[in-house]
Each structure stands twice: as structure tokens, then as C-alpha cells.
TrEMBL record, chain A:
Phylogenetic lineage: Bacteria, Bacillati, Actinomycetota, Actinomycetes, Pseudonocardiales
PANTHER family linked to this entry: RNA POLYMERASE ECF-TYPE SIGMA FACTO, RNA POLYMERASE SIGMA FACTOR HI_1459-RELATED
Record organism: Actinomycetospora cinnamomea
Region (Disordered): 89-121
InterPro entries named in the record: RNA_pol_sigma-70-like, RNA_pol_sigma-70_dom, RNA_pol_sigma70_r2, RNA_pol_sigma70_r4_t2, RNA_pol_sigma_r2, RNA_pol_sigma_r3/r4-like, WH-like_DNA-bd_sf
Full protein name: RNA polymerase sigma-70 factor (ECF subfamily)
From TrEMBL, chain B:
Any one GO molecular function term: methylated-DNA-[protein]-cysteine S-methyltransferase activity
Species in which this protein is naturally found: Actinomycetospora cinnamomea
Coiled-coil annotated spans: none
Lineage of source species: Bacteria, Bacillati, Actinomycetota, Actinomycetes, Pseudonocardiales
Reactions catalysed: a 4-O-methyl-thymidine in DNA + L-cysteinyl-[protein] = a thymidine in DNA + S-methyl-L-cysteinyl-[protein]; a 6-O-methyl-2'-deoxyguanosine in DNA + L-cysteinyl-[protein] = S-methyl-L-cysteinyl-[protein] + a 2'-deoxyguanosine in DNA
Top-level division of the source organism's lineage: Bacteria
PANTHER family in the record: METHYLATED-DNA--PROTEIN-CYSTEINE METHYLTRANSFERASE
Protein name (record): O-6-methylguanine DNA methyltransferase
Amino acid sequence: MADDEQLRAALVEDLDAGFEAVVRAHGDVVHAVARRTADRAADAEDLAAEAFLRAYRALRGYAPARIETLALRPWLLTILLNTARNDRRDAARRPRTDGVTPVPDRPTAAPGPAERAEGGEVADRLARLLAELPAAQRTAVVLRHVVDLPVAEVAAVLGIGEATARSHAKRGLDALRTRLTADTSEETA
Amino acid sequence: MTDHLLTALRDLAEPAPATLAERVVDTWVRVPGPLGEVVAVAGARGVRLLRLTAHVGDVEAFLEGYRTRHARPVRPAARPPRGLVPALRGTGAGPELDLGDLTPFAREVLAVTARIPAGQTRPYGWVAREAGRPRAVRAVGTVLARNPVPLLVPCHRVVRGDGDLGEYLSGRADKVALLEREGVELERLAALAAAGTRLVGSDTTGVVCFPTCHHARRITDAHRHGFASLVRARAAGYRPCRACRPL
């Protein structure tokens, strides 16, 4: 995989070819965060694609000197989170017209036998609990623990101090642990 | 427990679908077409834009214009979109098209136009009626004049109501060439138009058609009758053809 130094050089050399390399190099992390930010699984790829297109649009206006110093991953993730926020605001203003009822990523029915398979069940429950966290904690946990960014990068993406980023992630993690335990004891009771 | 939770969280990082890069980066190709080489730009959902290379001039400037207008990256394609080359040769169902940037009315106009069979023509007013807005004849003309995918959506088969061929994106001569290539008898149509004949009917079936409808072309001279309008044809006891639905 190309490192950011090579990617930046490629962008300056040929924006479109370089940008495709950026999508291939950072697509997984952007999509993974999109998946835990979008309300529906089907929206994650749309959201990731939209964020990349916004990034492309911004890059077209950047001077080479600016591109050469761009920290690509946190920059892309900041755009992704802004895109998701705008999408949510727009969705709240006007109802969907494509006939799809927005379903929050929180299954209401009990999972079927297939989904109860070992592992899958834990992942589903964890994803649900994660989606229920307050936004600040959820985003911090996703960036720090799902896609494994260093604290400094989490802070840069969220535009907050490192101490605050660390505390959001920790409180989110604690809440998940408490709820996981509570869920388990409910089920066994 | 902590380790389990952290491992489970990391397992929630689903890799991007393989299609993500295609969804973001469009591709372009040059391929041969009936009026000479064309440049086509396609996204993951289908062909978005097609232009004659000769009409475009500088291809790099054309692509730069596309990037600016659509705010999307474009790179050279490894191969043409599936179905594009056969469609330009006049065979096959054609490639997928992505007309998502257009208005619903424009999409409907293009969908209606795409159903006009090769070798036949229809008036702008017919397209307007079929698209559900019979009075929007001028708007149909505007949509077709901006057709992002000419040749694939055959806007050259849409002509003026008075029988005149009307305009075409790359000029009237190209429209003539395309219609002749499909076997449209332009001289015969011009003669009919000059005589004020817009529709032709058969006195054996009592059905009236556009002159280029394949039913109309089967009528023998002895049984062919021309009409200036559908109203006249109905008054003479004819019913409109169910295939070409004249108006």
C-alpha cells in the first residue's frame, strides 16, 4: 500500500490518478468509520463515496504546497464526519422520497437463529450498543478502537484536545462494557 | 474482558466493498462510432456522457470541463463499458446509462426516446405526450438538444411535427447521415411532408400510422391513404396504430 508521502506526490503529479490511489489506500478506513456512522448498512458505501467526492472537490482548489503537507487520513475522516452530519441534518429537514423508510441501525426484533451463531451475535450486539452511545463518545470509540487511530489523530479529526479525545473514548468504552454485562445478565436471568 | 471488548470493536471495522473506487472515480474511453470516433465517460452505474471527438475538439479540455462541471475525477478506462461498442455499431441492448444528474422529466424524455425503434422517427410532440406532458413540446426539444448520451439514446430519431428533420447536437448533416444509415427513406418522407401528409393508413386494416412505422411500410400503394392529422384519419374511420401511437 502506498504511504501518504507517495500519495501526496501522486496527487500533485496527476490529481485524478493520484486520487484513485488515495481511495484505494484509505477506502477501508473511511468505509469502516462510515459503516459505524451511517444509520443503515446500505448507506455506508454511499456516505464513503460522497465524502471522497467532496475531498476531490476540495483538492481541486488546493495549491500543490497545501497538498504536500496534507495529513490525508485525518483530513479524509474529518470530511467524512462532516458529510455524515450534513446528511443527517438534510434528512431531518426533508423526508426521504425514495420510498425507503429510514431504519435506525438498532434491530428491534430478536435476532434469528442464524444470527445467533457464535461471534456474529456478539458483533451485532456490540454494534447496536455502539450506535446507542452519545455521538461524541461513539465517534471517539470508532476512531480510537474500531479503526485503531492514535489518540493524536483522533483529536485532530474531532478538532479537540488529546485529553478530551482520550476521555471521550474511555467513557464510551466504559459504557459499552457496563451495557454488555447488563445485557448478558438480563439474558441469563 | 477488556481485551475481548477491544478485539470485538476492531472486528467491527468492515473493509470497503471492492466497488468503492469505481463509485468515486469515473473512467473515459475513445471508441469508434457511426459518425466517427466518440469520447465516452462512465461511472460505476453506467455511461454518463458521450460526445463526438470531432465535435469536442481538445479531449483533455473536454475532460477538464467534465471534472469541473460534475466535480468528479476521471481516469482512462482499461476497456470500454460493456455493451458500448456493439451499441455504436447498431447491435445489442446498449450499455447501462447513469442519468442520475438529470431532472425526472429529462430522464423520462430520454427513456421515451430510447424506445423509438431504429429506422423510425417520431415528432417532438409525440415524445412530450409519451413522457406525460403533452404540452411540453419545447421542453422536449431542450432536453434532447442537451442529451448527454446521443447515439445511445437516439435523439436523432425525433423530428419536427411538420416533417422537417429539425436540429441535431452536432448538426443537421449528422442527423441525416444517422437516419439514412438506419434505412429511413428521407426523400419519401420529405415528399409526404410537402404534400401535407403526416400519417398514412391502410384501407384493409383501417389502421393509421406514422409513415416510418413498420406497419405503415408494409402497406401496398393501392391501399395506402395519407392524412394530414389524426382527427382527419379518425373522421375517415381509421384507428391509431397500437405500435407507433400516432398523434
